[in-house]
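Minutes, project huddle
Topic: does the predicted pose make sense with nicotinamide-adenine-dinucleotide bound?
PN asked that the exact inputs be recorded in the minutes so nobody has to dig through chat later. Recorded below.
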Amino acid sequence: MLEGKTALVTGAAGDLGNAMAMHLAKNGASVIMWDVKPVDGAGDRIATVQEFDSTVTYQQIDVRDRSAVDDAIASIDTLDIVCSNAGIVDAQPFLEVTQENWQNHLDINLTGCFNVCQSAARKMVADETQGRIILTSSWVSSIPWPEITPYTVSKAGVNMLTKQMARELSTYGIRVNAIAPGIVKAGLAGRQLREEPQYAARVAKVIPLGDPGTPTEIAEAVVYLASPQTAYMTGSILTLDGGCSLFQFDE
Ligand SMILES: NC(=O)c1ccc[n+]([C@@H]2O[C@H](COP(=O)([O-])OP(=O)(O)OC[C@H]3O[C@@H](n4cnc5c(N)ncnc54)[C@H](O)[C@@H]3O)[C@@H](O)[C@H]2O)c1
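Predicted holo structure (tokens), as shared on screen:
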């Protein structure tokens, strides 16, 4: 389905980004994996993407570094699909949130997306590529989940960045959408489930469909947003959260 397309995935050495890279490759795309982790710390992740018969490149790029982002984008031949996915979470109760914690979330989760998406969009416009830009938001972008204020605020910003870009880039045929995963038993939430007992206790009560999601479910939605099937879709936030963001009943 994505044969001949080149896809860039940020945070590609992480759990969701790696699944996205794998599923894009499985569907025929050439994949450029970016992560702040050095290549020797991501070898197994690269190998899982290489298993599919497509071209795979890995680059150590910090999405906060605008000139590194611009240089790397400029060196890509054609760019059709961008998954702006790199992100962090570091829980602190609101009264204890440090300036550093607040700034880190905004710099990586929001400004990182701005850097990658603006740079990629400029290239797509210059090349006349009617590309797809897919951002990773979160179900908590509109839900005040406890102890992660900088994270939820950064993801609320990702939603508006998505819609703003969708509006302005529609002129060029570039589609911009976001996925909003719920609680996935991997990556950031996987770590919280293992390390923060109060988080696990809250999670046990909030998923109407029962279980946390999987990276594969999220990655398949990303492929859908990159596919010809969604050519009429732009400015949408596609939520995959097992019903978490529905009104909760205490039964
Ligand atoms: N796991 C979940 O339940 C869940 C739920 C909703 C949204 N998300 C979102 O999914 C995305 C991926 O998270 P994940 O769960 O796979 O976590 P993860 O920690 O497994 O992956 C995140 C990756 O981003 C990379 N990264 C961090 N800072 C970076 C930077 N400055 N530049 C480039 N790369 C950087 C990390 O090295 C890591 O490999 C994030 O945006 C996260 O907010 C995750």
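Observations noted during the meeting:
- The helical segments are 15-26, 43-50, 66-74, 99-127, 149-169, 187-195, 197-206, 215-226.
- The first strand starts at residue 6 and ends at 10.
No decisions taken; revisit at the next huddle.
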